[in-house]
């Protein structure tokens, strides 16, 4: 039995997703905005689950604010090497971080993921797909059996990730969305880094920035 909790938190309401297998008493967290652990910890206690992995969709400051704190508790962290600079030297993002005086803690990735990786978590097979464009190392985590995909800031309900930040690129993001997200089952539920959930099919037909085709 799976339990999914969404915590919009941090300075700009970045989504942290806590997915738990209640039979195995295991949980994973997708993204770790500032203050995420304050919200996640009591839920883990309520569910009597242990956090076994932190999956980072990308290295932007609003997605990794609590990553070092969670890692210090013994939780392994997954991320893509193309965002290594962001993970290990978050001060490079200070010029566009909000608020500008926030704490930025580096995180050392335990497991570098690449396109096509299959990770076993919570008794599920999780596919990794590389979806750069918003930033170089954005990845998605696709739970095929659950019909769910966590896409970071590649795609939102009715929108897409910004490409005007350092190392962003719209043509790259457009290609990533078409090839790596729109190729999923249209019924797949999309859980983005900000805002409400959507589906692959909904975005293929109505997203004004990237249509299927």
Descriptive overview:
With 213 residues, this protein is of the alpha/beta class. It has one domain (2-206): Ribonuclease Z/Hydroxyacylglutathione hydrolase-like (Metallo-beta-lactamase, Chain A), CATH 3.60.15. The protein is 21% helix and 31% strand. It has six helices and 14 strands. The chain has helices spanning 36-47, 61-64, 67-71, 84-88, 170-181, 200-206, and strands spanning 2-9, 14-21, 26-30, 50-55, 77-80, 111-113, 118-121, 124-130, 139-143, 148-152, 155-156, 159-160, 189-192, 198-199. The strands form three sheets. Strands 1-2-3-4-5-6 form a six-stranded mixed beta sheet. A hairpin with a 2-residue loop joins strand 7 and strand 8. The longest helix has 12 residues, at 36-47. The protein is globular and about 45 Å long.
Calculate the mean pLDDT score and round it. 97
Silhouette: globular
The number of helices is 6
How many E-type strands? 14
Helical amount: 10-25%
The total tally of domains equals 1
Architecture (CATH level 2) name: 4-Layer Sandwich
| Radius of gyration over C-alpha positions, nearest whole angstrom | 16 Å
CATH topology: Metallo-beta-lactamase, Chain A
Ranges with pLDDT <50 over ≥5 residues?
A: none
SSE pattern, N- to C-terminal: EEEHEHHEHEEEEEEEHEEH
The class by helix and strand makeup works out as: alpha/beta
The top level CATH class name: Alpha Beta
Cα(first) to Cα(last) distance is 37 Å
Strand order of the largest sheet: 1-2-3-4-5-6
Main sheet properties: 6 strands, mixed
| CATH evolutionary superfamily | Ribonuclease Z/Hydroxyacylglutathione hydrolase-like
**Residue fraction in strands:** 25-35%
């Amino acid at each position: 039995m799976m339990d999914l909790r969404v915590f919009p938190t941090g300075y700009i309401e970045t989504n942290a997703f806590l997915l738990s297998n209640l039979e195995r008493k295991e949980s994973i967290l997708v993204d770790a905005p500032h203050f995420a652990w304050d919200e996640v910890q009591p839920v883990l206690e309520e569910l009597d689950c242990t956090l076994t992995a932190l999956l980072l969709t990308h290295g932007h400051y609003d997605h990794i604010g609590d990553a070092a704190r969670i890692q210090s508790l013994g939780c392994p962290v997954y991320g893509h090497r193309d965002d290594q600079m962001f993970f290990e030297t978050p001060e490079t993002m200070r010029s566009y971080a909000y608020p500008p005086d926030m704490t930025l803690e580096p995180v050392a990735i335990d497991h570098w993921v690449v396109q096509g990786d299959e990770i076993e978590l919570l008794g599920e097979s999780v596919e990794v797909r590389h979806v750069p464009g918003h930033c170089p190392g954005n990845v998605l985590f696709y739970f095929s059996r659950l019909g769910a995909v966590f896409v970071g800031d590649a795609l939102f309900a009715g929108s897409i990730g910004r490409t005007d930040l350092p190392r962003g690129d719209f043509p790259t993001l457009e290609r990533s969305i078409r090839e790596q997200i729109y190729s999923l089952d249209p019924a797949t539920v999309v859980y983005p880094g900000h805002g409400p959930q959507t589906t692959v099919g909904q975005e293929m037909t109505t997203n004004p920035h990237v249509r299927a085709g």
